[in-house]
Write a structure and sequence with these properties.
Spore Coat Polysaccharide Biosynthesis Protein SpsA, Chain A; transferase activity; 12% strand; transferase; 14 helices; 8-stranded mixed β-sheet; alpha/beta; single chain
């Protein structure tokens, strides 16, 4: 059974098993009459071919409180875009597929590049950023939720619980973040969160010094969770990374822009599983190795914007401090897993910590060698100020894509 502990920094909304999905859904449908709710789904085309996304659509089809579903489609050619439109056509809600690789959206990106505002790196952050811009330009949402398309344990209760704190007009929250235990197939998962982020935040606190920012991030039970819901009014001023640092970047922006009482975390699932990334020891441009470097860079960039000065010596000290803390944490995770009948491969855990420790320094070196690198994608307020027509043109580009590819029966 869930506890009811509060950390004193951001509100934690638990699942005490005293209500049900039907009750939450009825309330959300009432709230949605005045506060329209949109859902953003950043998706690779390959996810349409997996098992998770069809199940997600089955549950979304019953979520009548969702007014608009915006799907950001990456890595799709014209035939695949057409297939994606047909794939999502079974959603009863209004829905839009933003074809990020289409010629019209590429022209929008080129227009941004000409004024120096295009996202530099491809990835989930870039996909989400364009979806946020489209949703803001459409001007039809008061609440915007976001989650991934590879959740194999997805159900409608997860979405209802995620959205409820922000949609309820009697609550003060402008952002809610989901959390859950990462367990599946008798194993304790969530390696990047457990073995990188948690010990790294403790190590940073020792090496850099006490920061309210560290206490804020540590207050979240699962800071790398990809499930958010936000009031639409805060989105235009939000800057996010374009890479795997998205989740840390969103939390950092909430810390910068919102008082702690406006942010909450909510228990959305008893068990959560999604597509697992390979560790990728030999190739630091992919998998969890790339993810760990991007997350470290996101943290370093945020601290630098607050005046922290980094040196290679500091990164070496950080590596050593992290390594000792992470090894101690492995013992705790192992004991916790054993008590709950779960398995943990201690050798694999320690090997993962060794990789992450190396990547802490690797990310630091990249950070120091690229002092002119822009930490975040520009926010949409800046885009609108620099090019007042761009958001309107983006909405038109998406509509034109839909019209051009809307009637062909071709499937792939």
């Amino acid at each position: 059974m869930a506890d009811f502990h509060q950390n004193g920094f951001v509100a934690t909304l638990h699942n005490l098993r005293t209500t049900d999905t039907a009750t939450l859904t009825r309330e959300l449908e009432v709230f949605a009459q005045r506060r329209k709710i949109s859902l953003i789904l950043p998706s690779l085309y390959s996810e349409l071919e997996g098992d998770a996304l069809p199940n997600i659509l089955n549950h979304l089809s019953e979520a009548r409180f969702i007014d608009h579903v915006v799907i950001g489609l990456d890595r799709a050619d014209p035939a695949q875009y057409r297939h994606a439109k047909q794939f999502f056509a079974r959603l009863p809600q209004k829905h839009t597929v933003v074809w990020n690789d289409g010629p019209r959206m590429r022209e929008i990106d080129a227009r941004l590049a000409r004024i120096g505002l295009s996202p530099i790196e491809p990835g989930k952050g870039r996909n989400v950023w364009f979806c946020l811009g489209y949703t803001l330009a459409a001007v039809n949402s008061a609440v915007v939720a976001l989650h991934d398309c590879d959740i194999v344990t997805y159900d409608r209760d997860m979405l209802a619980r995620l959205v409820y704190p922000v949609a309820n007009p009697n609550f003060p929250y402008q952002m809610s973040k989901g959390y859950y235990p990462r367990i599946a197939d008798g194993k304790l998962n969530g390696r990047v969160n457990r073995l990188l982020v948690s010990p790294l935040l403790l190590a940073l606190k020792r090496v850099v010094g006490d920061r309210e920012y560290f206490d804020y991030l540590r207050a979240f039970r699962y800071p790398l969770a990809g499930e958010f819901a936000m009031r639409a009014s805060i989105l235009s001023d939000m800057r996010i990374p374009s890479d795997w640092g998205l989740e840390i970047g969103v939390l950092s922006e909430a810390f910068r822009n919102l008082p702690p009482k406006a942010v909450c975390q909510v228990d959305i699932s008893d068990g959560y599983d999604h597509k697992h990334q390979p560790l990728s020891v030999e190739d630091k441009t992919t998998g969890l190795s790339r993810m760990s470097i991007d997350i470290c860079k996101a943290l370093y960039r945020k601290l630098a914007t607050d005046g922290t000065v980094f040196t290679m010596e500091a990164f070496r000290s950080l590596k050593a401090t992290y390594y000792r803390i992470a090894l101690d944490m492995i013992e705790s995770y192992y004991n916790d897993a054993r008590l709950n009948g779960l398995s943990v491969d201690r050798h694999a855990e320690e090997s993962t910590v060794e990789l992450f420790a190396s990547n802490i320094v690797e990310a630091g070196q990249i950070f120091l060698e690229n002092p002119m690198e822009t930490p975040f994608i520009p926010n949409w307020n800046r885009v609108h100020s620099a090019d007042p027509d761009l958001m309107r043109l983006m909405v038109q580009a998406v509509a034109d894509d839909n019209a051009e590819y809307g009637d062909s029966p071709e499937l792939i």
